[in-house]
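RESIDUES AND SHAPES:
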Amino acid sequence: MQGDVAARLEPMRRRHVRACAEIEQVLFAGDSPWPAAAFHSELDLGGHYLVAVDGSVAGGDEHVLGYAGLAVMGKRGDYETSVHTIGVRPEHQGTGLGKALLRAVLAKADELAAPVLLEVRTDNDSAIGLYEKHGFRRLGLRKGYYQPSGADAYTMRREAITGERQEDGR
C-alpha cells in the first residue's frame, strides 16, 4: 500500500463496529449508512468481514481505516458470495487500502470457488474501475436502488475462480 500508514488487515471484531459505523456515516450519509446493529448482525451471520487498522497509533490503540464484508451463502460445493460493504476513510482513499480489502475478500471467495456479486452506484467511477480490474462485469441496472437518494446501482458479478484457474494464474 502507498502512503505513510502501516495498515494491517484483520478479522472484524465487535470492538471495531462503532468505528465502521462512523465511517459509514461519512461515506454514505445520503444513502442509509449501516448502523452498528447492521455490522453486528452480519458478524452474527458468520460472513467474512475484515478491517484495516493502523496499529501505530499512540498507546497501541487500533484506528480503523477501512473495512470490507463478504457474505457467504449456500452449501459446500455450491457457494455464492456477495460483497456487502466496503469503505475507506476519505483521508486514506487512493492509497491502495480499498484494493487490499477487496483482494482479501476475493481471496476468501476464491477459497470457496464461489462467484461474487455486488452493487455499486452508477456514478462511483473509481469503485467501478476497481471492480472491473478485478474481473467484475456489469449484469444490469437497479433503478433507485440506493435510498433515500434514489441513486441507481449496477449489479456486477465476478465468476468463480476454481482451483485449476488459481493454479495456472487465470
Notes: Residues 14 and 40 are 7 Å apart (CA to CA).
